[in-house]
């Protein structure tokens, strides 16, 4: 008797190894695809959370500084909000600037343009001098913004006709929008 494997035994072993390899490859490729999807989702959620946090921080640092237009005329407003391209404009005392020789007051402008939420900072009295500009969020659809001193009486433009003189900032700023078929409803305020 000879020791060894027959050709049939070798073919069956190769077939079993091939089946195990195919199943392992399919499992690993699904795992890599799922990992990429989860990483993208975490990245998008993190970017969204950071943008909303920055917006809230800007509102917390807002100061009642009268705005001027681009020709340096007084507007007699400390806050302007609308559903147009320029959704929020106000002045904040930023803590992120490290320059000692210049004022820490910055005009904060949030714009909604081409489905992007853009944050621009300028000098408080001169918005022609842009200090920074960044796209905070992209692929935003159906952005709606509302302002008011109560959740029952919201307007699309602030200050509106029925605003009391002492209320220079709205109590509430509400953002409704969609990103990648997810609906968001953010309620923010100026903490006054």
User: How is the biggest beta sheet arranged?
Assistant: 5 strands, antiparallel
Strand content: 25-35%
Oligomer: single chain
Distance between the termini: 97 Å
Task: State the shape.
Answer: elongated
Mean pLDDT: 85
Q: What is the count of β-strands? A: 9
What spatial order of strands do you see in the largest sheet?
1-2-3-4-5
H/E series, N to C? Answer: HEEEEEEEEE
- Using only C-alpha atoms, the radius of gyration works out to 28 Å
How are the secondary structure elements laid out?
Layout: H1 7-60, E1 79-81, E2 86-93, E3 105-113, E4 116-123, E5 130-137, E6 140-150, E7 153-155, E8 172-179, E9 182-188
Antiparallel strand pairs: 1-2, 2-3, 3-4, 4-5, 6-7, 6-8, 8-9
How is this structure best described in words?
With 192 residues, the protein is an alpha+beta fold. 28% of the residues lie in helices and 34% in strands. It contains one helix and nine strands. The radius of gyration is 28 Å and the shape is elongated.
Output the keywords.
single chain; 192 residues; alpha+beta; 5-stranded antiparallel β-sheet
Describe the structure concisely for a colleague.
The chain has one helix at 7-60; strands at 79-81, 86-93, 105-113, 116-123, 130-137, 140-150, 153-155, 172-179, 182-188. By secondary structure, it is α+β, with helices and mostly antiparallel strands.
């Amino acid at each position: 008797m000879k020791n060894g494997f027959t050709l049939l035994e070798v073919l069956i072993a190769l077939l079993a190894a091939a089946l195990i390899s195919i199943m392992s490859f399919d499992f690993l490729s699904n795992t890599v695809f799922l990992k990429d999807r989860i990483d993208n989702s975490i990245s998008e959620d993190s970017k969204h959370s950071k943008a909303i946090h920055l917006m809230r921080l800007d509102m917390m640092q807002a100061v009642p500084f009268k705005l001027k237009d681009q020709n340096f005329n007084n507007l007699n407003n400390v806050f302007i909000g609308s559903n147009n391209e320029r959704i929020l404009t106000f002045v904040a005392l930023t803590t992120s600037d490290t320059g000692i020789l210049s004022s820490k007051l910055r005009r904060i402008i949030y714009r909604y343009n081409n489905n992007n939420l853009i944050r621009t900072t300028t000098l408080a009295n001169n918005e022609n001098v842009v200090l920074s500009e960044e796209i905070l969020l992209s692929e935003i659809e159906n952005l709606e913004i509302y302002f008011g001193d109560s959740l029952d009486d919201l307007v699309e433009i602030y200050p509106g006709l029925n605003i009391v003189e002492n209320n220079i900032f709205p109590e509430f700023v509400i953002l409704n929008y969609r990103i990648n078929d997810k609906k968001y409803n953010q309620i923010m305020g100026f903490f006054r």
